[in-house]
Model the fold of this input.
Amino acid sequence: MLEFLICSLLTIFPDFLFRRYVQGKRIGREINLYSMWFELRYGITACVILTVSLITMIFYFHPSTTNVTAVFRTVTILPESNGRVAEVFVGTNEKVAAGAPLFRLDNSEQQAALETARRRVAEIEAETTVAKSELASADGLIAQAEGAYLQAQNELQTQVELNARNPNIVARREIERLQVAADGRKGALAAAVSNKQTLETKIASLLPAQKASAEAALAQAQVDLDKTTVRAGVAGTVQQFTLRAGDIVNPMIRSAGILVPDDRRIGLIAGFGQIESQVMKAGMIAEATCIGKPFTIIPMVVTEVQDVIAAGQFRPTDQLVDAQQLARPGTLTTYLEPLFQGQLAGIPPGSSCIANAYTSNHDALHEPGISTWRWLYLHVIDAVGLVHAAILRLQALLLPVQTLVLTGH
Done:
């Protein structure tokens, strides 16, 4: 209607002035309800063409949409494994800090595994103490074996010297027996030294490795036990949290509730028509008005334009996709952020809004060598954005009336 009124001032009204003051025709006589089309046919035809062109230009270069929502982020409250709830620490609509416990699952199995891992660590520590005692005993065994070997060696040398002086004093059989005894004592000494080296290796390498593995198992058991207590990942408010002791929670089937973070606000998400995909660009200036904050125009900026349309997505299933199932046209998802800090204050998250985006040709108008017709055309495009801005302000004024009076909500 606003576009038609503006266009009529440039077409129908000059045509009427020409008929009235140049041709002398008057309303109610030559110009009446029945002859209006014939008398003002040029102005009416030009008005219709100009109105359609103006509306097309406005809605294409300065797109508008009512599919706008003040979105916010939520966090699903889920344990990492299923189990039965043993204790609940918070209630619905309760504010929690980051890391605060929300509920605890039955952890008897995890506690048993933790105790087993703790006992294993204590067992390896005891083995280390025993090995150190055996190492001290191994030194004594080595000293004993060295003494026995030295004694056997001395007896053998004595008998060999006596036999060298007089072969008839010492029998050869006795010398061989002493040689075998000395070799045996030498082997016992080597065994004692090897046993000590084994104990040293066990204390230095094997037992520390076993203890590290046991401590890792202990840490894993502690982690599994800690996972039974579900905590808040971020600070926020717990919503739809009706969990009670005895309930079964399964992360694949049933969630425990929803956590709405304090820093939940993301901005506005708008769905513009697909025909504006060539016009919508990141960095465009936009405006929005929301039901949650009437009579207010919020300056926005387009931060991101999704390069795919959600209506065309599909995923592999056991049935072929029919194109008729994708016939519903989708919208071009666009993310809007407030141009100034705090502009979204007072708007409840989830509010429905109306948004306009405006094409700006400021840089193109200042390009060197631009033609006069193109300069005029770009100026017209930027100027008609005022019409859409005025329409948005009229919508902001009528939105409370439409919501409260006309729809009865």
The first strand starts at residue 64 and ends at 72.
